[in-house]
Design brief:
Beta Polymerase, domain 2; two-stranded antiparallel sheet; 9 helices; globular; alpha+beta; five-stranded mixed sheet; 186 residues
Length: 186
């Protein structure tokens, strides 16, 4: 028996619902560089109350844990950092859903997202690589895992020539990430 993958479990329903989203985190960094194991997928989504209810209904089955709809509505009201988790009961695979809210960087990145097929042909919207790097730098600065260092370094190794350096360096300065960025340089 083949285990389900993160995209078929968590992204395919978003596509069917027509939700505006982008995959970020380690799934995106693996797409832009080297694959590594992860048991979760990070998704930034723009959801109205109605779309949040439809998303809740899509995952409100015995196969998944989804928080109560009231929690999703409360998290959606946050101007930044609103989020919730959906967990696949049989495998423990997890999706971390983040609401774009009024976060300037998330909103801009959603406008620049890129679509690509996964190995099963499902179309997936990915955050631009610059956003993935910036979000990993933010997590790293705030005490994140050494995996963030490896992910950023791999993306720089594979994608360095295609990155929008002006945007990336400007956001690093704007977000106060200069020291974190400098620590990654060999």
């Amino acid at each position: 028996m083949q285990l389900p993958d993160l995209v078929s479990l968590f992204v395919a329903p978003l596509n069917r619902l027509g939700v505006s989203y982008m995959v970020t985190g380690s799934v995106a960094s693996s797409t832009y560089s080297y694959a590594r194991f992860t048991n979760d997928i990070d998704v930034v989504a723009v959801l109205s109350d109605v779309e949040a209810e439809r998303l809740h209904a899509a995952f409100d089955t015995p196969d998944f844990y989804v928080p109560p709809l009231e929690v999703m509505h409360l998290e959606r009201q946050r101007p930044a950092h609103g989020h919730f988790n959906v967990i696949h009961a049989a495998t423990g695979l997890k999706a971390d859903f983040f609401f774009a809210g009024s976060d300037r960087l998330m909103r801009r990145s959603l406008e620049l997202r890129r679509q690509a097929p996964d190995q099963n042909g499902e179309r997936v919207w990915f955050a631009p690589p610059e956003y993935v790097i910036l979000s990993k730098l933010l997590y790293l600065r705030d005490g994140g895992s050494p995996k963030h260092v490896a992910d950023v370094q791999a993306m720089l190794q594979v994608r360095d020539e295609t990155l929008d350096r002006g945007f990336l360096l400007g956001e690093i300065e704007s977000l106060g990430l200069q020291a974190t960025w400098a620590s990654l340089k060999p």
